[in-house]
Design brief:
Length: about 200
């Protein structure tokens, strides 16, 4: 199965793949998930629908991988190693400027609604977005544990990703403002790091 998937993906260059993902996100912002079709993606990207299905299997996988590819963590959160947990979380936040965060916030709000009514999209998000990001956050936290910054038995460790996503989402819902670098950096310092018992705040 892995060999088949590898052969399937090898037909598209990384540059072309990135172009396709950007086009998918543009369409999502324009029409939303439910109205997005593989025909529309094919037309926008000048691809054949058969190629899209061969590469991604369907709309849910394509959308989940497009979101993963363009998220700051998609470039490899686990590769960030500044020497401190605070530095790592700040570096992750600074990968996106305020304009990109505002766009991503609006996109994720729309997808969150779609996920509730679409089991395929939920499964794709868990496999291609949530599970990899949780694994990368665990790597970052494990380094902090190894440095003595975080106690290994701290119960907040299991909720790091919840806290990070919560701060991002709640900014729009509660404050009616888009998330910004300044807001998220202050949120990390005031909420996330103290919860983890981190002393380098």
């Amino acid at each position: 199965m892995t060999e088949v998937a590898t052969a399937r993906r090898s037909r598209i260059t990384p540059e072309r793949e990135a172009e396709l993902y950007e086009a998918v996100l543009e369409l999502l912002r324009e029409v939303g998930y439910d109205a997005l079709t593989m025909d529309a993606v094919a037309a926008r990207t000048k691809s054949s629908k058969a190629t899209l299905y061969r590469q991604w299997g369907g709309k849910a996988e394509l959308v989940a991988k497009a979101v993963r590819h363009t998220k700051p963590g998609g470039a490899g959160l686990a590769e960030i190693d500044t020497g401190s947990l605070k530095g790592d979380l700040h570096a992750l936040t600074l990968r996106s400027d305020d304009c990109t965060m505002e766009q991503n916030s609006a996109l994720m709000r729309g997808l969150a609604m779609a996920i509730h009514g679409n089991p395929d999209l939920l499964a794709a998000f868990k496999e291609y977005l949530i599970a990899p990001e949780m694994a990368e956050f665990r790597t970052v936290v494990q380094r902090a544990i190894d440095r003595g910054e975080v106690r290994p038995d701290n119960p907040a460790i299991d909720y790091l990703m919840h806290m990070m996503i919560g701060g991002f989402a709640a900014r729009s819902m509660i404050d009616e403002q888009p998330p910004t670098q300044a807001f998220l950096l202050s949120y990390i310092d005031a909420v996330v790091l103290p919860a983890l018992g981190n002393q380098n705040v």
